[in-house]
Structure formats: structure tokens, C-alpha cells
Amino acid sequence: MKLIIATIKPFKLEEVREALTSAGVTGMMVTEVKGYGAQSGHTEIYRGAEYSVNFVPKVRIEVVVSDDVVEAAMSAIETAAKTGKIGDGKIFVLPVEQAVRVRTGETGNDAI
Amino acid sequence: MKLRTLALTAALVAMPALGFAQDTPEIPVDVPTDVVWIFTTLLFLIAGFLVFFMACGFAMLEAGLVRSKNVTMQLTKNMGLFGFACLMYYLIGYNLMYPLGTWTVEGVLSGIWGVGLVEAVGVGADGVDDYGYASTASDFYFQMMFCAATASIVSGAVAERIKLWPFLIFVIVLTGVIYPLQGSWKWGGGFLDEAGFLDFAGSTVVHSVGGWAALVGVIILGPRIGKYKDGAVVPIMGSNLPLATLGVFILWLGWFGFNGGSQLAMGSIGDIADVSRIFMNTNMAAAAGALAALILTSVLYGKADLTMVLNGALAGLVSITAEPLTPTLAMAILIGAIGGIIVVFGVTLLDKLKIDDVVGAIPVHLFAGIWGTIAVVLTNSDASIGSQLYGIVVYAVVTVVLSGIVWFILKATMGIRVSEEDEIAGLDTTELGMEGYDIAKS
After folding, report:
1. Beta strands B109-110 and B103-105: pairing type?
2. In chain B, what residues touch A46 (CB-CB under 8 Å)?
């Protein structure tokens, strides 16, 4: 099992969700976050005064998938989230030691 | 202005005798004096409740442009100032402002002291105060709304750090003394009226007076914590731009009463045509002010700034207020547009001087008010630049001195500013213990 954490542009969420569903991912957690990477921040002007927006709004998606789905899920996110412009986001993959479905007590791949 | 109209309506009163035999064909139909009186009264009532609604406009604009932690305080101040303005105008203001020729000091200080009075219940034509004009209560009501508007101007500028009661005490002096005293110099037939100073609906008498009082208050009060840091301006965002926009549209609506009602007569074709012309000029100036700010901020900053567009519309309105009658529609557009431009640069200028005006009241009401007062000479041949500047300077000096004295006394005695801790926590919880947006917690 792997945990995929992806940060994407907020307007790409629906496309990424559809792509993940097509790739066989059955559930996900989504959080609205702020942060910056290579895109860093930008400046805005309010009533004539410039200020910098250091943290850019992003959506963070977390999915736990079985090992055989990892590649498909990653490429689904990559394809759907890509605009080719700076700030498209990142995908991280981490190992998951165990999973439990609370309702039934199932564990491992059966629980995801 | 009132005196001029009295003379005009006096001529109307004399007309029936002339026109009855149809020997004056240029006046084909006489309007009975009763009808003139009734229609002018109606004008004051309609225009008066439109100006009343401007209080709502100011409250919404200010509530939208302060941070959410200060919203309840801003609304409380708006309710309080309106109440005190009405009370003070009743107690001394109305008679101080309209001496009707009875002066303690000729042209400077009214000779009528005490509360304003209205006509008796069920009064007849023979019992009214001024048969050639309108009901006293309608005039009183209309003028009272103007007085309240002056106080509203101050509250937005000093927002987010002033204590409630010192502010309200300032309002008491402003609406009871500073505004009506100076109002008498022009609209009460005082020395500025004699000097040929023209201000139709109050670019100077109302807006600049409020603006000067606000400017002095803001300087004495100091900027909000965190507004100016290391030589840079730190923007402090408004909490609710839909409310601010609603407020500006309400003010725009109210302004038709503010300027239209200042015709002070609606009993003839000429008068109602003038009121209509004033409505159109007022509207075009506001539209032009908004557009000027919209285009200018887009060009200067790359993106349009709604808060500046809102200020721009108001600046257009203030600019046309000194003379909403004589300009052509094209001139009204020009006058309003320049007001919108003034406001965009005015906001930046104040920030450069570290003068923290939360809602832009000073650029809108003072800077555009001065422009509007000067602009009278462009379209009204009765105006002279000398007397316009004379009026502007007199109102500037007297308002700055009087309001400065009051602000300083308040600062020295009870203090005008909340503590640093309270300001950061927000005035809603610290001064009032009541929050504007409590939905998430309940």
C-alpha cells in the first residue's frame, strides 16, 4: 500500500478526481491548503499599496492505494493536473504500513 | 440658498394677481400658492427620506471596509451618531443654522437660540410659518438629515481604533455647533452668502466640513497598528465588499434627494424641471467618477480595484454637489470623472503621509469637495473663483481649529484611542463584547 499526496491547482480538482476514479481509485481526502514551491508568491495591490501573497492556494489530495494501482494513479494525477505552467504542483508517494476499515475490521488492501 | 428661494417664492405668491386676467401670456397657468407650498413640502419629505437612507449607505460601506473584528463597533457608531445628530440639531442646530435674519453677530452667529419648532397640528394656510415656502417640519427634517450625513463622514475615517464615547461626544459638538454654525454662514444667509460664495447642496458646507473634521481626527488619533511598517504601506483588507458595494449604491440613491431636494422648491415647471436636471447631472457625475477610478486603477495597477471604484463613484457625487444644476450632462461627466481621478491619487497621497483613513472618507469628501466647489465657476456665471476660494479657506480654517480643539480636549481628558491590546483583539469584543459575524460559533 502506498499513500499518494498530491498538491494541485484548485481548479484542476474535478478533473483529477475523475481521472483517479477512472484509474480505479475509490476514495480520497481533499484539503484546501496554502503553500509555495518554485512558483513562490506574487504581489497584489490594494488601494494603491502593494503587498506580497507568499502562500498560494492549493488543493491537497491524499489517496491510499494498493501497490498495483500506484503507477496508474500517479499518471492520472499528473495528466489531469498538468497545465504546463509554473505552480502545477507535486506528487509524493509514501509507504503505508497498515490500514483498517473501522466498520468491518478488515485490514490491508481489503480496507482501502 | 434658503433666502434666495424665499425671494423667489415671494414672487410666485404675487403672481396670481398678475396672471388672473391673462395679461401675462408667458405665464399661461397659475399654480395656486397652496399647491406650491404642498409640492415643495413634498419635495422635502421625499428628498429627506432619501438623504436619511444615506445613513444606511454609510453604515454598510463602513461595515464592509473595516475588518470583521470591528464591524459591530462601526455599526454602533453609525447608529449612535445618527441619534445624536438628530438630537443636537433639534436642540440647537436648526436655529443656529437658519437664523432667518435674526443675528446675534450679523452674518456670523444666529440670534435664535433653543430647540427647533414645527407647525401646529392641522395648521391652515393662514397659520403656517412661511406660506411662500414649505412646511417647517419638512424643511427641518430635510436639513436634519444633512447634519447627520456630515457626522457619518467622520466615522469611517477614524474607524478601527477610536473609543465609542469620545467619538460620540465629538459628534455632539460637530452636529450641535460646528456644522450648523458654519452652515449659517452660507445657507442661513450669513457672511459667506453675502460674499457670493456658492455651494448648492454642500460640497463644502457638508462634505468638506465632515472631511476636515475627519482629517484632524485621523491625524490626532494616529494610524492603525500595523498599517505603516518600515516605511511601507501594509494594506488592511475590508471584511465584506458586497456590503461596501451595497452601501455605495444606497448612497448614490440617497444623493438624488441630497442634491435634488436642495432645489428647495417644486411648485413650478421651472423648479421641477431643475430638480429633474439635477437628478441627471448627479447620476452622470457618479457614473463618471466610478468609471474614472475603474479605468485609472486598471491602468496604474494592472487590475481594477473595487474599493477605489466605490470611492470614485462617491467622489463623483461629492464633486457635482456644489453645483448640480447648471452643468450640462457632458460637464457633469467631466466634473465627476475628475473627482474619481482625485480620489485614486488622494488615497495614495494620504498613505504617503501616513494618514490612515480607513474608508477613504477624506479623499472622497474633502478633496473631491474642494474640487466640486471650485468647479462651480466652470458652469455657473454667478460664481467667482475668488469667492469660492474664500469660502473653501474659511470652512477649512474654522473646521480644523474647532474640531482640533475638541479632539485635543477629548484626548487629554478621557483619551480617544483604545489600548494596543484591545485594538489588535478587535473593538467588537473589547469595547462591546458583541461580534458582527458570530455565525460560525453558535
Report:
1. antiparallel
2. 235, 237, 305, 307
Res. B439 pLDDT band, cuts 50 70 90: low
Burial class (CB in 10 A: 0-12, 13-18, 19+), A39: middle
Q: Which three cell numbers stand for residue B246?
A: 451595497
Query: Which of A51-60, B64-73, B141-150 has the weakest average pLDDT?
Result: A51-60
Whether residue B171 has pLDDT greater than 80: yes
CB B406 within 8 A of CB B168: no
How far apart are alpha carbons B405 and B424 in whole angstroms? 28
CA distances from B24 to B21, B28, B56, B318 (A): 8, 7, 48, 40
Identity of the residue numbered B248: V
Query: Are B267 and B135 a contacting pair, CB within 8 Å?
Result: no
The verdict on B344 touching A (C-beta cutoff 8 Å) is yes
Mutate to test the interface with B, among A47, A50, A53 (most CBs of B within 10 A): A47
- Cα–Cα dist B157/B200, whole Å: 25
Cα distance between residue B174 and residue B154, in whole Å: 10
Nearest chain A residue to B358, by CA? A47
Q: Which residues contact B86 (CB under 8 A, 6 or more apart)?
A: B144, B147, B148
Check: CB of residue B412 under 8 Å from CB of residue B166: no
- Summarize pLDDT for A54-90 with one digit per residue, the tens: 898 999 999 999 999 999 999 999 999 999 999 999 9
The number of helices, as runs of H, and strands, as runs of E, in chain A is 2, 6
- Contact predicate B214/B361, CB 8 Å: yes
CB atoms within 10 A of CB B108: 14
User: In this structure, what C-alpha cell is assigned to residue B159?
Assistant: 474607524
Q: What is the pLDDT of residues B328-358, one digit of tens each?
A: 999 999 999 999 999 999 999 999 999 999 9
For residue B436, which of B246, B238, B249, B245 has the smallest C-alpha distance?
B238
Residue B16 clears pLDDT 50, i.e. is over it? no
Alpha-carbon distance of A102 to B81, in angstroms, equals 60
First CA to last CA across chain B, in angstroms?
A: 53
Residues in chain B: 442
**Average pLDDT of span B112-117:** 94
Residue entry with cell 514551491: A37
Q: Are strands A49-53 and A42-46 parallel, antiparallel or unpaired?
A: antiparallel
| Helices B33-65, B241-260: inter-axial angle, 10-degree rounding | 160
Establish whether this prediction's ipTM goes over 0.95.
Answer: no
> How many Cα atoms sit within 13 Å of B86 on the Cβ side?
11
Grid cell in block for residue B391: 469660502
Interchain CB distance below 8 Å, B308 and A49: no
